[in-house]
Amino acid sequence: MLVLFKQAIVEMMHHKLRTLLTLLGMVFGVGAVIAMLSIGEGAKVESTRLIESMGLRNLVINEKLNDNETLKEIRKSSVGLSLNDMRTIESSLPFVSQSCAEKNLKTYSVFSNQSEADSSVIAVSPNCFSMSNLKIEAGDFFTQDDNNASKQVAVIGSEVAKSLFADKNPIGELIKINHLWVKVVGVLQQQELSKKEIQGIKLGAEHNRIFLPLATAQKRLKIPNLESQIDSIRVTIDTTIEPQVAALAIDKLLKRRHGNVEDFEIIVPASLLNQQNKTQQIFTIVMSSIAGISLLVGGIGIMNIMLATILERTKEIGLMRAVGATKVDIKNQFLIESTTIAAVGALLGIVMGVLLSFIIQSFAEWPVQWSLFSIILAVGVCLITGIIFGYYPAKKAAELDPILALQKN
User: Fold this and answer.
1) 267: left (phi over 0), alpha (psi -120 to 50) or beta
2) What confidence score (pLDDT) does residue 187 get?
3) Nearest residue to 138 via CA among 190, 174, 97
4) Residue 280: per-residue pLDDT
5) Which of 244, 269, 294 is the last residue of a domain?
6) So what's the pLDDT on residue 239?
């Protein structure tokens, strides 16, 4: 068997250009399959990581944005999202384990004694930090006691810390938000997210935010009359219920409380993940199918070169049969030659796939997740293609009449 492989390599070297052109289809096919599957898997992993940052067992209820005229009409039936809504959800629905509220604040100035910053300010319940998977880098989060006492404290993002305090330690320093002075008690750890949003939902803006206790903001800062008490409610559900079912129950409860006015929307991170995975799966199938066409073209190329080789080596085949070679020997020799071409194409395709993945990652900034399965799949399909398209020429060579083959000019 090893001798047949050596003969196949020698035969390939005799026709370098022809062999190279035959290899191209296999190289591009394998390379494209590996690149597409690795990028697809990377995108899937990254999407999962991004959506998990919202909490897969969380549901987010957001106030819908409306103009003033629409809000006036809505306020006749509904006061908008409120802390009472949050308390009712948690007390009425047994599958809700915890909840928190958020309120985006309008600011006209944010500065420290050293600098100013263009940062957004958000008032939150203390447990919003843990429910949003946020981690502290320096200092600590404010507590429920701080919230109950309406303390003038703040947790800031890493970008805010750089803007307002440069290289100085911000813990214990003061920030003025509009007319309100607050003391920095914590700095958030920056989240390294590759995207700022997914499925239209903004992510990872915490690095440029200032977080205040919700009670402090409601007591110390003015909220316009038409605005709702809070902008968002985040709830965590337990594993006894599907997120979609929980969202439906919350939707019905809030509609009753809001006079059947749909002035809110519910975001289900688990549904976003499923939708993203389905989209990614379709993308992977389509791109892999296109790559498969290259393998098909490469297989046709192998058949062509093998048929041409048989015509060139008819006398050689006749001589081999005359000295005792069987039909099986002839068939095996040509099958091994076609498989060797496919194997060499697969190896070069792996190199091309790796390079192509890095190029796409660099220019398009798409994540790459290497998968041994994708490499094995691409190489396996390539070898099978070589065998399938090499079988007919090998069979034709084996069935040549040795006498007529020896007489061939």
Assistant:
1) beta
2) 93
3) 190
4) 73
5) 269
6) 83
